Amino acid sequence: MAAVSMEKLTKVYANGVRALDALDLEVGDGEFVVLVGPSGCGKTTALRMVAGLETITAGTLRFGGRVVNDVSPRHRDVAMVFQNYALYPHLSVRQNMGFALENKKVGRAEAERRIRSAAGILGLTGLLGRKPTQLSGGQRQRVAMGRAIVREPSVFCMDEPLSNLDAKLRVQMRGEVLRVHRSIGAATLYVTHDQTEAMTMGDRVAVLRAGRLQQYGTPRELYGTPANLFVASFIGSPAMNLYEAALEGSGEGTAVVLGSQRLTLPAAVLAGRPGLAGYRDRKVIAGIRPEDLAMPDGTAAVAEAGRGARPGGTGPGGTGPGRTGPGESRAGTTGARNAAGAAGGAEPVAYLRAVVRLIEPLGSEQLVHFAIDAPQVREDAGLRAGDQVAEGEIMAAQAANGVARLGAHTPVRPGETATFAVDATRLHFFDPDAGTAIT
Amino acid sequence: MSTSALAPPPETPSPPATSRRERRRRKRLEEQASTIPIELYGLRRGTVTAATVCCVLFALFTLVPIYWIVVNSTKTQANLFETFGFWFARPFVFFHNLSLLTQNVGGYGTYLQWLGNTALYAVLGGGGATALAAFAGYGFARFRFRGSRALFYLVIAALLVPITAITIPLYLTYAKAHLINSIWGMILPSLVSPVGVYLMRTYVEVSVPRELIDAARIDGAGEARIFFRVALPLMVPGVMTVLLLSVVLVWNNYFLPLVIFSKNNLYPLTVGIGLWAQRAQGSGNAQLFPMVVIGGLVTIVPLIILFLVLQRYWRGGLLLGSIAN
User: Fold this and answer.
1) Which of A103, A230, A382, B93 has its C-alpha lying 20 to 30 A from B316's C-alpha?
2) Residues of chain B with pLDDT under 50
3) Mind telling me how many Å the CA of A380 is from chain B's nearest CA?
């Protein structure tokens, strides 16, 4: 039985705004599920509905099989950590954590035991007598978590608890939150707007946009097989490079046309995406992640494509503890594969020529901004494929319309024409009208 | 033994525990840091001096009656009329005048009885008004219900009605309800304080964050518990302000008790001293003028004490640390 089960959960406000539209989601026992999306996508609304702080317009919400639509929050056995902590300012840390236990008439001895145990897990033992005014931001955040933990609830709700911390502390606290989750083991629903947090923390991640669920799966699935343009450009940093393209040819000779370049698609790619067959000689949107563009070493033979292109890399997660970002292992694999690289043939590598416009050295890697003459598709700007390419677009094409992530020591210079090796199996294709992935 | 043997990572240390004086000093420095010194306003020379002089003059003008009453409470009736009003004169009969207050001079009523009445009305009426305003302000500010806006405007609209306009209807209604010459005739109308409701609503909106109430709901507290244990401690400065205002209003109320009471022993101080003032001009034998003066002085003393006592509640900063900023 799922710890939390949302069935067609909908929220429509009095002024007609549809904050959440028929959300179907399940959180298993002990699972850490992240709701992620841009502002206004309905993730906080969904969380508040689970916690009981918003009424449910339509749909069914179940906790462990029990329908809780009309159950007040105090009877739902759910604990919440707020974005702004919401600590009781006139109570000490101990009293803050004990408040809920008082309400539930838990005995003094038991309450004290739970408070001590939670304080121990969170490192708050020395601070129990202080008031929230006398604590730093990170400490307050931990008290907010402690307040949730002592209740030993069946569901934890967390509403962007780390967004008020400075960057470095945030990264440290990500690990803390996961550590606490592992030792407590209750189902957790975590809301964030930061896709890095979502990818590094979630067992499963739900991407929402404008009240609708876009995709729900493991971080690996979201990264590797995004269901639509929005998920593809939302997950992964820097965002996936998306271009208007067309498929040409048939059978063995299928190629994707990006501007003036043709990238041959080997049979493996077509076999893996049977849906592509329906798009022969039609427009598609092609996407390639910055991590999947490699630089052949020097002007060496095709066979040695990609060797030494990348160090062990830092996935999309930056310096965080917790799980490895899915991009990392991928980079390792691609590099290894290309280096092991046989003389062409079996390797589905295509080449893309681009003009390097700008290089951002990050120390551990370089972000190389380049331009190709294919029209860029920008999901966040709301441009849909199929829009007429206006004069402005042609001008924009003079500047950079793509990013590649290369090793720190790869020799590139702005103004040069670079040739990127593209692993064709890593290309993503989307329907230009619906935006859905072509599988 | 918990599985998490790792200590949490070191981070910015928390501010050290400090004494109240330390915190006040630090707060003053903070305030100084967030305000602009007057030298930088870009004002013409002499503007500040001129403005200060005007303010001082206005303050003097406001304080003159207080000064007068302090000085003249030490004089005999004869001296009240014959000597310079703004300075003392011999004999200095302050304590004698005070003792007059305890007597029932000329059968016109005892000061102490009136003082007791006023205190009763102020505590019950003013205190009750504050409580109701606190409940109402919290309700308007933090609950969504149909007609809340209309109801609030109705409350404010009550301010538009002058008391003199409703005197006759008030009297007739209260007479029917047997509230004339009853303390409840004085207390019940005093419980209605539109200004108090408005102030409390505004204060609650600012000082009690919605999230705190959400957190308390999730923590399993019932609404009453939330109000008394979570919201009220945060509303204290607002409540104290409304308390002071309500008490002062009831204490100084002259018109309502004049309408309601005809029995001498129920009068509050305002009506009682007013009665003395009337009689003083009439009958020549009773030495009522000094009593009016000293009576007036003693009347304002409790209010000043109340003000001084409640001052410490007007300290801000209760919310620091509750909400991340």
Assistant:
1) A103
2) 1-10, 317-325
3) 29
